[in-house]
Structures are given as C-alpha cells and as structure tokens.
Write a structure and sequence with these properties.
Layout lengths: L9 E7 L3 H11 L3 E6 L7 H15 L3 E7 L13 H18 L5 E7 L2 E2 L2 H6 L8 E2 L1 H12 L9 E4 L7
Parallel strand pairs: 1-2, 3-4, 4-7, 5-6
Helix pairs in contact: 1-5, 2-3
Length: about 170
C-alpha cells in the first residue's frame, strides 16, 4: 500500500488453482484490488461459513460482492456424476439464499455457472483432438466475474451462465 492512505478494495478468491482462480486473481489485481487467495485442499472452507464471516463488514460498508461459481451439474444430474451433482446444486441454492438475504442490505451475491470444459493442461490432454472453441478460457471467465462484481446496483444479475459459442446446451 502506498503512503497516501488510499485504501484499495480487497478481493478474496477461494479455490485458487492454476486456471480459473489464478485468472480471477490476476484480473482483480489488474483492476486495482489487493487480492487474497485461498487454495483448495481436503479441509476447504464451506461457502456458508465464508459468507457468514465476511458479510457483516460488507453490510456495514453498504457494498460488496460474493460471486460463487459452479458448473452444469448445479442444474441437472448426469450419468456418472451422482456424487458430484448434489453438491453443486446445494452450492447454487445456498448462494441464492445468501443473495436473498444480503441483496437488500447492499451486498451483491451472484452465481456464475460455467457450462464448458475449462482450458487447462490436463483438459487439453483429456480432449487432445478438440478444437480451441471447445474450451472456455480462464481469463474469459475472470472477465465475466469482474463484470458481475461491478454491475450497477440497479441491474444486478444472480444466475449468469457462460459457455463457449460452440457448446451444445
């Protein structure tokens, strides 16, 4: 921080890995934010506890944003995803409940659904013959999350779905 006592906004990004989380951290840093990052592990923090911890300061400030991201499993179950889909659906509905509570208090809460395969080294290896447009770029996800976090208060989004143009849905 500089010596001019100008306080930069803070972005706390959870689940940071080499793809989407890192891209979100870079985007917010480039946008003038101080960035704090938490990496995933077996003991990772549940969304509810994080919101309970951070919401009071946001409510007091009369502003802030909590943006959760998930995937298509939040909306529909698929074969071989029985152990995964319920947790994503629960995350989405929890985010909606938090949004309904905090929105009227000035805190924007949104859910960004990523309906795509994220462009990472391991996904490129899994789908080696897939064209570039099959993958969604982590920087593009970060740009959309930046946009949602900075929407005008008169036009807040909750459910935001993003996918590459060629994705069948």
């Amino acid at each position: 921080m500089s010596g001019n006592n100008t306080k930069r906004p803070l972005a706390l990004i959870t689940g940071v890995g080499p793809g989407t989380g890192a891209a979100i951290a870079r985007r917010f840093s480039a946008g003038g934010y101080d960035v704090a990052m938490l990496a995933r592990n077996g003991e990772r923090l549940a969304l509810l506890y994080l919101a309970r911890r951070l919401a009071p300061a946001m409510i007091e400030a009369g502003r802030g944003a909590i943006i959760a991201s998930g995937n298509t499993s939040a909306l529909r179950g698929k074969a071989k995803f029985a152990g995964f889909a319920p947790t994503k659906a629960a995350q989405r509905i929890l985010t909606e409940a938090i949004a309904r509570e905090l929105g009227p208090k000035g805190v924007h809460v949104a859910y960004v659904l990523i309906d795509a395969v994220i462009d990472l080294a391991w996904t490129r290896q899994r789908w080696p013959d897939a064209p570039d447009e099959f993958f969604i770029k982590p920087a593009a996800i970060a740009e959309e999350i930046w946009h949602v976090a900075h929407q005008d208060r008169s036009a807040w989004s909750f459910n935001v779905e993003i996918r590459p143009f060629g994705e069948t849905w």
